[in-house]
Write a structure and sequence with these properties.
Blueprint: E1 5-10, H1 13-35, E2 38-42, H2 46-57, E3 69-73, E4 75-77, H3 87-94, H4 118-131, E5 144-148, E6 172-175, E7 185-188, H5 190-194, E8 198-203, H6 209-216, E9 234-240, E10 252-255
Parallel strand pairs: 1-9, 1-10, 2-3, 2-5, 5-8, 8-9
Antiparallel strand pairs: 4-7, 6-7
Bound molecules: ligand LXAUTJHC.
Ligand LXAUTJHC is lined by residues 43-47, 75, 87, 147-148, 150, 156-157, 180.
Length: 256
Amino acid sequence: MTNERRVLVHPDKQNLGASVAARFITKIIDVIEEQDYASVVLSGGSVSTLVLAAINRSEARDSVDWSKVSFWWADERFVADGDDERNDKQNGIDLLDHIGVLPENVHRMANTSQAASLAEAATQYQAELKAHAQGDDESPRFDITLLGVGPDGHVASLFPDKPQVLQTSPTVLTIDDSPKPPPERLTLSLPAINNSQRVWLILAGAEKAASLGLALAGAGEDQVPVAGVKGRKRTVFFVDKDAAAEVPEQLIASTY
Ligand SMILES: O=C1O[C@H](COP(=O)(O)O)[C@@H](O)[C@H](O)[C@H]1O
């Protein structure tokens, strides 16, 4: 199998969430069997409410040895701990609070009481990424990165027409004027995201169709950030029918 981008189309949102959850559980079990641990990158929004919640509901959830899984974040909002805007809060409600993950394997980005400034929070996370990276890499080769895509094509907190999307270093970037609230955020850079072995992008709804179509038709990442995402081994777009409306026919690997 080549490392081409693949699009898997599902009939509806509910089916999409259940399908990605099932694949995730299978793949994580395989990865743990192969290397005795697995690393996962999470994000907020639809990935959490659709996929993480479906993993939590799955009967197969407890077949995973969660003590061997580490969790990282693709982006986070720089607000107080426990604020409803925190991605890690929703991820906790949807999955992390219900599984046997070890606290030392949960690598959250700092909140406003853990870092005095956005810049300090970014520096802390860069150091944590580097501490878990192999060789000369600046960040780990994550096993699975789960990303949502905004209607404007943003991924993590990399937004169209903002300088961060073209910034190749450092691994963690700051945003103080996010077009989507809250304004202050931390995000992995595109190269740090792309250091993942597998990137799975999850999109549902007609409002995502135009950006996805543009990204797959060759638009630049400065205009449509999702266009710049490419995992080392696999890049898979899991989409529902509505989000797939403008995907070129030849790129659709399967339709359920
Ligand atoms: O602001 C954010 O938005 C993206 C996309 O969210 P979605 O609900 O449209 O899938 C999300 O992936 C990111 O983590 C979050 O901070």
